[in-house]
Amino acid sequence: MPGSDLHDTFRKYGFIIPVLAGLCLLVNSQSSFADDLAPKEKSADKTDVIVTPQQDGGVHIDEMRQTKCAIIIDDFDEYPSASNWDVHRMSKPENFQIESDVVRDGGHALAITVFGDDELDSEGNLKNELWEARQKRCDFGDEVWYSFSFKIDGTVWPAGSTRWVIGQWKEDSGGSPFLAQRFDNGVFHITVQHNDIRKLVAQAEGSYQQDFKGFSREFQQMLSLDRQGFRNRNDASRTSDEFLGSGLSLPELRKAIETQDTSKFPFLADPQTYSDYPGIQIELSDDPVLPDPTTGWVDMRYRVKGSRVGQGIIEIWANNRFIARVTGYIGNDEFAGNTQYFKFGHYRDYDRDDLQSTVYLDRFRRGPHRSDVD
Does the keyword section mention Hydrolase (predicted)? Predict the structure, then answer.
């Protein structure tokens, strides 16, 4: 019978079935092992769509591969590239030039110039700055190291309460920079900020002393209205004697920094924003006075880690001298994104049309470790 024949066949060859099953399992496992060893195809690079406003009211759109917080090295031997910098904000070539005569290292530097008759932005500011590229931005709260060399040439008037920022670290917000290099009234100084509270960390000495030969012209500047009808709010309340004061002794400087006594720092453009807020602590070195960038190149190094919960730290060196350490609340509680960015150049109030000043930038480094920037 057919059923009997099938039974006889299974009894005769049934032992082969487990053997075949075992072979199948072995082949499958070897195939899986080979798959594990074989190099896997990399997933496509993540890209960012970058929209940059233009002066004519339009926008410029790029798609850039995201290399977030990667090491940046730029000696400016050629014009800044879109891989590291937001070049579409450099819309005026006459304000951004590669310089071969004034250099710190190598053969070139970047020269960023501001002219008094440059077009003002909607808030009445003169603004020519080099921005980090959006696809290279680090997250706020990351520990990031920066080093660069800079100097300033041109017309600098040590009077008139002119706000002048020459380097700043900002969050994705419309707030003030949480760390800034400032040059109000021709004095290089560094500030930190939490929300609306600002603290002076360090300053260069002596450069705000008045040159009497130009005093009559400076007096006119202090009294003048700018072309947009804006007046610096402190001009009327400051006297020339305040800008002629002598420098502070080191103990006096330490005390003035501790208490944020702005009467000891008459160059500050917005003294009402400074506070002895205890949530930001400043520790000065034994030699905390900054070099003067109008007399030569200044080599800066920063360790930067912002924090909205009191865990921030900023350390500052100038010309290989440790200047200061700042700890505590550093940053703005209101923000639009998670990243931070650095920009360098001129961001300042308008004061007069015959202004012409150039800040030179050379040997820029950024990375997550000090060894990346030394």
Answer: no
